[in-house]
């Protein structure tokens, strides 16, 4: 019985994550999770490093979401970003930028 608990907990956790993802609402505008990050200096540097096609896709999604928001509309349900389709395209670049900043701060201390 104890061996089943992690599986049930994992399914429950995944169900909660999907529910929360849909309740956040950004997917109804066609946005991905990384599109909603606050653009501080680290995020701006990470955006500078992503490939041009990913940057262009991001700008398209943001402009479309802004247009929909101004019209107080959402995309048709078949065009919503699905939890399974949401790719964390910016996260690897952001982790790299943060790590470099931390290393630079450590270097400057010495």
TrEMBL record:
Record protein name field: Cytochrome b-c1 complex subunit 7
Asked if Membrane is a keyword of the record, the answer is yes
Q: How does it assemble?
A: Component of the ubiquinol-cytochrome c oxidoreductase (cytochrome b-c1 complex, complex III, CIII), a multisubunit enzyme composed of 3 respiratory subunits cytochrome b, cytochrome c1 and Rieske protein, 2 core protein subunits, and additional low-molecular weight protein subunits. The complex exists as an obligatory dimer and forms supercomplexes (SCs) in the inner mitochondrial membrane with cytochrome c oxidase (complex IV, CIV). Component of the ubiquinol-cytochrome c oxidoreductase (cytochrome b-c1 complex, complex III, CIII), a multisubunit enzyme composed of 11 subunits. The complex is composed of 3 respiratory subunits cytochrome b, cytochrome c1 and Rieske protein UQCRFS1, 2 core protein subunits UQCRC1/QCR1 and UQCRC2/QCR2, and 6 low-molecular weight protein subunits UQCRH/QCR6, UQCRB/QCR7, UQCRQ/QCR8, UQCR10/QCR9, UQCR11/QCR10 and subunit 9, the cleavage product of Rieske protein UQCRFS1.
Species name: Pagothenia borchgrevinki
Q: Which keywords describe this protein according to UniProt?
A: Electron transport, Membrane, Mitochondrion, Mitochondrion inner membrane, Respiratory chain, Transport
Q: How does it sit in the membrane?
A: Peripheral membrane protein
> Which purpose does this protein serve, as stated in its record?
Component of the ubiquinol-cytochrome c oxidoreductase, a multisubunit transmembrane complex that is part of the mitochondrial electron transport chain which drives oxidative phosphorylation.
Q: Which family does it belong to?
A: Belongs to the UQCRB/QCR7 family.
A Pfam family? UCR_14kD
Where is it located? Answer: Mitochondrion inner membrane
Q: What is its main location?
A: mitochondrion
A Gene Ontology cellular-component term? mitochondrial inner membrane
* Keyword set includes Lipid metabolism: no
Instruction: Give the source lineage, highest ranks first.
Output: Eukaryota, Metazoa, Chordata, Craniata, Vertebrata
Q: Which domain of life is it from?
A: Eukaryota
**InterPro entries the UniProt entry points to:** QCR7, QCR7_sf
């Amino acid at each position: 019985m104890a061996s089943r608990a992690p599986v049930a907990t994992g399914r429950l956790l995944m169900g909660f994550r999907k529910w929360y993802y849909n309740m956040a609402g950004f997917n109804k505008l066609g946005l991905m999770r990384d599109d909603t990050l606050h653009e501080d200096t680290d995020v701006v540097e990470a955006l500078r490093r992503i490939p041009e096609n990913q940057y262009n896709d991001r700008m398209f999604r943001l402009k479309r979401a802004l247009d929909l928001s101004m019209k107080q509309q959402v995309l048709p349900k078949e065009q919503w970003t699905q939890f399974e389709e949401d790719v964390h395209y910016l996260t690897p670049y952001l982790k790299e930028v943060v790590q470099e900043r931390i290393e630079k701060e450590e270097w400057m201390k010495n």
